[in-house]
Amino acid sequence: MWHVHGAWSTAFVQGGHDYLVPVLPGRPPDGRGLPSRPGAADWPPSAIEVTPAQLAGAEIDVAVAQRPHELELIARWTGRRPGRDLPVAYVEHKAPSGPVGNMRHPAGGRMGHVIVHVSHFNRLFWDSGGTPTVVIEPGVPDPGYRYTGELAAAAVAVNEPLRRGRAAGADLIGEFRRRMRVDLFGAGTEPLGGTDLPHKALLDEMPRRRLYLHPVRWSSLGLPLIEAMHLGMPVVALATTAAPEAVPAAAGVVSADMQVLVRACRELLADPERARQAGLAAREHALARYGLGRFLRAWDRLLSVLARR
Q1: pLDDT by residue (tens digit) across 64-118?
Q2: How far is CA 108 from CA 119, 130, 199, in A?
Q3: Which ranges constitute the DSSP H helices of 258-291?
Q4: Same domain, residue pair 200 and 233
Q5: What pTM was computed for the model?
Q6: Domain count for the chain
Q7: Strands 209-214 and 235-238
Q8: Distance (Å, whole) CA 207 – CA 151
Q9: d(C-alpha 154, C-alpha 268), whole Å
Q10: CATH value at residue 240
Q11: Could you report the per-residue pLDDT of 25-65, keeping only the tens digit for each?
Q12: Which residues are paired to 255 by β-bridges?
């Protein structure tokens, strides 16, 4: 498996397996290896850095792909044909882009593959081309209840908002900021006045804000949203992709109406006790639906089936 999406990968490697993670000189995107940044999330000893040369002779039961070109890397680096010599679980983190009638998945129609969607919304929209699919919703290690809400501000955590543009709600961040204080966190947020923090520091800083704001228009179910709920933060979110299922009514407000969203933010900012109660409901829901144990058990079942093929 490749270290691509940090929070998802951190949860995935907590299971009871050995995880071979490719590493290349300089740690480029195709060979990041284990987290090396100070303050990054901890990975267990069962996550092992390997070079492409080491992969060629390694005992591998299942390959986990997350990007289309990794299917070619699996073949080249392991010397085994994906889906024929080696079963592949292709994890799809994103909602498809483009017209609804033209959303064929990169792993669609491939024998020996399983497409693992992180939300039912994704599964509904992607065309699998007959490839078996399964939904395993995200899970995150419980950071514990840390909410204080001492700052009358909304927290937003999104990576590369300028590059991702409207899909990430980059334009909406400015709309909300004209009406309230919004503190932005994530990689590539500096031009928008944001801060890039190590993961451990982010988990301390976000719950100091009174609410979590999810302005993403078109993506998958963002793990920062789930982490914020675990932390005990109330949520105000766009009613897009999987957010309506992820955020129950007691945990905050989900709407496609900007006026409703702005009003919800203002009301939570003005009422700390209401915000605290909504955050408790958010945490209860997150622990039940997006707990790490449920996530790992679902993956155990799938990996066991694939390894026997």
Answers
A1: 999 999 999 999 999 999 999 999 999 999 888 877 767 899 999 999 999 999 9
A2: 17, 7, 34
A3: 258-270, 272-289
A4: yes
A5: 0.92
A6: 2
A7: parallel
A8: 9
A9: 10
A10: 3.40.50.2000
A11: 999 999 999 987 665 668 999 999 999 999 999 999 999 99
A12: 238
